Please model this.
Amino acid sequence: MSDHTVKHRKLLTRPVIEWAMWDWGSAAFNAVATTFVFTTYLTSDGKFTDGATASRYLSIGLTVAGLVIALLAPITGQRADRRGKGGVLLGWFTGLVVVCMLAMYFVYPNSPLGPINALWLGVLLLGLGNIFFEFASVNYNAMLNHIARKEDMGRISGFGWGAGYIGGIVLLLIIYVGFIAPEVGWFGVTTENDMNIRVAMLVAAAQFTIFALPVIIRSPKPRHVHVEQPDAQEGRESLIQSYRLLWKTVRNLKKVAPHTLFFLIASAVFRDGLAGTFTYGAIIAKTTFHFTASDVMIFAIASNVVAGLATIAFGALDDKFGPKKVIVTSLIAMTLSGTGIFVFYANGPIVFWILGLILCIFVGPVQSASRSLLARMIPEGREGEIFGLYATTGRAVSFLAPAMYLLALTVGEIVNPGGEYTHWGVLGIALILLAGLLLILPVKVEEAHLDHFDESERHAGKTSETTN
Model:
């Protein structure tokens, strides 16, 4: 294919746009349920209980959810590969996330359940929503290989991530203007019985449903379905058989493509740092820089604007210079920004506005480049399985951000007893990002492609058949 043809090949085809629309819709869960609205609602001091207790309950629920994801994500992706049913599973898991979001309407302190039981219901729904969302994401990420050529994956992955951020902006604006800011919102909604928050969750569920439907109805078909055994073709493999196949995959990765394992480990660490940025960013804004709820929403909208634009722009750099360079550059910038917030916090909210937004510029490019880097490595028919491992490795270290945040706060309290120490939390997150940066530097991308890995498994299977 000539350079002229590559340069002028149409990227935004209908399958690409429909695929990216799911990312747009998914912001309803990421931005509203897990980051800026529902979690802060659950952990508000004095709402269901004191803030510390609510935060502890939420941590317990999300930890359990993380363990379930770590155990089951790779085998759900593996089974989808062998049956060619990634689109069907994407539809089911997306639908279950929407159901969880709709049920969040019933979470409020004065409900018949009572405040503590209502809090636990909210934690349960968030936990289940996270599980179903991660399972959906495994099948969604796997579709990148079905709609993009290797040389276009950076731009298409960036377009999807950028669409997600823009979808978050639009939804947060709607919720803020329509329900959070006014005393009497749209349709006469007020703060009585927290109706503004509850209706916001219904609006979020509606957005996810509407924008996810196109790719679910017309999901891109895999060009190759990976089949390991007769039972797998019939869909009758047991959990034990699935784990045996998974263990076989891990062993072959270690033997044939060790740099892929190195990347999975490195990405697990820095992705947990990214998760910590989202989870604790609003908390740091409120506790250290004394942002009001409205301030947090405005910052959320601004951060999504810069993240969305940057992610789309960096997609072209991904294709031109390679995803690893995008990841390394972004992690350096994020580490410096986080450290700057810690060092200069005494200068007030302006520090968080400037350095926090700079940090947000690079969050999306890291996520997008990580997805495109892994997608480039995977042979056809193994997408769900490898992206399942991607989800599992991320969840396996999901304790890092909470642990480092808590450790940094503890050190800060010791260093400055009786004084201000909440800003120390951001240092814990910055250290995780630095650790992820140091881990990815030795990864040799050219040695991490999995085509030989797939050939080795096929050869091993033929050898085994001959032996038997």
